[in-house]
Amino acid sequence: MMEALCALTARMKHEGIRRLLVISGEDDWSLQQATALQQQLPGDWLKVGSQALPEPWCPPNALAKLLGREFQHAMFDARRGFDVAAFAALAGTLQAGSWLVLLTPPHDVWPQRPDEDALRWSESAQPFPAPHFVHHFCRTLADDPQTIIWRQAQPLTLPAFPAREAWHPANGEPEAEQAAILTQLADCPPGVVVVTAERGRGKSALAGMHIRQLNGTAIVTAPARGATDVMAAFAGEQFRFMAPDALLASQARADWLIVDEAAAIPSPVLQKLVARFPRALLTTTVQGYEGTGRGFLLKFCARFPHLRQLTLSRPIRWAQGCPLEAIVSEALLFADNSLTRLPAGELDYASVEQDAWQTNPALPVAMYQLLSSAHYRTSPLDLRRMMDAPGQHFACAHSDAGLAGALWLVDEGGLSDTLSRAVWAGYRRPRGNLVAQSLAAHGGSPLAATLIGRRVTRIAVHPSRQRDGIGQALIAHARTAAEGCDYLSVSFGYTAELWRFWQRCGFTLVRIGAHREASSGCYTAMALSPLTAAGEQLTAHEHQRLCRDGQWLAAWIDEKLPLPVSSDTMLSDDDWDELASFAFAHRSFIAAVGSLNRLLLNVELSLPLLRGRLQRQSEAQLCHDAGLSGRKALLVRLRQETAQALMALDASRASQRRTLVQQLQFF
Ligand SMILES: CC(=O)SCCNC(=O)CCNC(=O)[C@H](O)C(C)(C)COP(=O)(O)OP(=O)(O)OC[C@H]1O[C@@H](n2cnc3c(N)ncnc32)[C@H](O)[C@@H]1OP(=O)(O)O
Ligand SMILES: Nc1ncnc2c1ncn2[C@@H]1O[C@H](COP(=O)(O)OP(=O)(O)OP(=O)(O)O)[C@@H](O)[C@H]1O
Fold first, then answer.
1. Do 2-151 and 176-312 fold alike per CATH?
2. What is the mean pLDDT of residues 235-255?
3. Residue located nearest, by CA, to atom 10 of ligand 2
4. From the CA of 382, which ligand is nearest?
5. Cα–Cα dist 164/118, whole Å
6. CATH class of the region 348-553
7. Is 259 annotated as a binding residue?
8. tRNA(Met) cytidine acetyltransferase TmcA tRNA-binding domain: which residues (predicted)?
C-alpha cells in the first residue's frame, strides 16, 4: 500500500496537483496513521492544530505568519476544533505533489462533538457542537471522487485516478496569460482596467510586473498593506504604497493608480480615488478566505464608459483543476454562483432558520454566496457563524428563477443592569453585542445594553434587482419577525447612498464613529429602528444626544453629517453623568466630546490640555508641550482637568457623582 501511495505522490508532482486525505477515527488511531504516512513520504510535514504536535507545528491562529511560504505535505488536526480558514490557508501553502492530511473524529459522532473553534465565531464561553457545518463538510467529502477518506477499521484504498497532462511550474517570467495582459496595459488609452481572478492566479504579481515595466509613475493602494508584498516584490524600486484614507486626504498624483483588492473598498471611495488618475488598474479576487466582491465590483465598473475587464484563470503554483483547491472551494463555498442566475419574476419573502442547512441546503448556500459577493469581509468564520452559532436569524426574497435578496440578523443586548452600567462607564467590554454595547459605551444611556436588539449584520440584493424595493421589504419582514425585541439595529460604513437606504427603511441615526476606517475610508455609523416603547425612548434619546453633539463631532469628522444643527450649550443632567464617567471612571474621550465642549463653555479655568485636545491639537504635540510620556499619561491628565472643572462648577454634585460612577466597577 505504501508503495502505491509513494507512486501516486510522484505522479501528483508530475501533474502539478495536491490532494486531500482524510483520516477519520479515534484520536490516537488517526494520529498514529498520520505519523506512519509521514515516515513513508519525505517532506516538511507542517502540522496545524490547537494541541501541540511534534515539530514543525503551528497553532491555527499563528498560521498567518507562515503565509507566503511553501511546504511539501502538511497535516491539519481537526479532532478538537476546525478552524476552516486556517485549513484553507494551509492548503494554499502546499506545493504541487503534496498531501494535506486532515484528522477528524469518526464521522458518525463528529456532528455531536463540541468544536473548540466555536469560541472564535460565537460569544459562548464553552465549545459546542456544530452539526450543520459538519454535515455539510462530510457531504462535500463524500461527493468528491478525488478526495481519499480513510476510516478506522477499514483499509486505506487508493482509487485508480485517470492520468493528467504534465505540468510546468512558473519561473518568474510572466506566464502566458500575464504576458498578454501586460501587453495590453503597456499600450493602454486613459481609463480603467479591471483584472479579476480566483486566488493565486498571479494578479498581484501581474500588477507588480506592470509597475516595473512602466514608463511613468504609479501609486498603489489596498485595504491592507501586508497583502501587497507579492506586488512589491515584482515591482521592485518603483513600488509606492498609500492607504486609501491617506490617499484620499492627499493631493498625490501619478500616471497610474493601482488598486489591489479593489472590491474591498466601498464604491464611492473607489470612485473618488479612480477619478483623480488618468489610468487605473484595479484587481480583485473573486473567491477566497476573506470574501469576494465580484457582483458589486462589476456594478461599480458599469459606471465607467471606457473600462476594460480582463481575467486570469490559470493557477500559478499548481495545475488547473487541482483536487485540493477544488475540495476546499466546495467545502467553504468559495465559488460565487450568485450572479449567474437572474432572479426575475414575482417574489416570495420568507424567514430562514439554521435547520435549512439540513432540509434545503441549496437555499442557505445561495444566501451565503449572495451575501459574500456583496460584502468583501465575508469569510469562512461567517459561514460557520451562520450555520451553527446561536441567535442568528435570516430572511430571503426569492422567485422561481432564483434568490433575489438575503438578510442576516443577530440577537444582541439583554445584559444585566449592572453590566450595562459598567460598559457605559468604560469599566467592562465583554465580547459581542456590537451595537448594544456601543450604545452604552459611546452613547448617553447607561442601561442601553439591557434592551433586546436584533442587529442586521448583512443585507444584499442581487444587482439586477436593486432599487426595486426588495431591501426595504426584507427589513419590513424582519421587523414583523422580531418578536420580543426592542429595536432592529445596524452598523455600517457611512456613505450618503447607504444612509438613504437605511433611512427609507425607517432607521434613525444614533452614532457615528470619529475615525475613518483605514480599510474602507468610511466612518462607522449606527442606526436604530424601534419596535417597542422602550426602543422608541432609547432611539429618541440617542438621536437627540447625537444632534446635540453634532456640531462638536463635526470638528472630528470630515463628512457632511445628516443631522439638524443644535446650538444647545447648557450642561444637562446627562452631561453631568457623562462627564463624571469620563473624569472618575474609564469612559473614552471621544464618547464624551460633546459634554466636554459644553463643560468648557461653562467654566473659566484654563484647562490647557483639555482645551487643546478639543481643538484637535495632536496628542503627540500636547504630550511634548506638557512633558508627558505618552497617550495614557495624557488621558489621565485630561480626566484630571475634567474633574477639576466639575469640582469648580459644583463640588458637592461632583463628589456625589464620583461616588456613584466609581461604584459601577464593583458588581
Ligand atoms: C449591515 C449592512 O449590510 S450595510 C451594507 C448594505 N449592503 C450593501 O451595501 C450591499 C450592496 N447593496 C445592496 O445589496 C442593495 O443596494 C441594498 C441592500 C443596500 C439596498 O437594497 P435595494 O433593494 O436596492 O433597496 P430598495 O429598493 O429597497 O431601496 C429603498 C430606498 O432606499 C434608497 N436607496 C437604496 N439604494 C440606494 C442607492 N444606491 N442610492 C441612493 N438611495 C438608495 C432609495 O431611497 C430607495 O427608494 P427609491 O428607489 O424609491 O428611491
Ligand atoms: N510569473 C510568475 N513566475 C513565478 N511566480 C509567480 C508568477 N506569477 C505569480 N507568481 C507567484 O505565485 C503566487 C501567486 O501569485 P499572486 O500573489 O500574484 O496571485 P494573486 O492572484 O494576487 O493571489 P491572491 O488572490 O491570493 O492574492 C505568488 O507566490 C507569486 O509570487
1. yes
2. 93
3. 202
4. 1
5. 39
6. alpha beta
7. no
8. 535-651
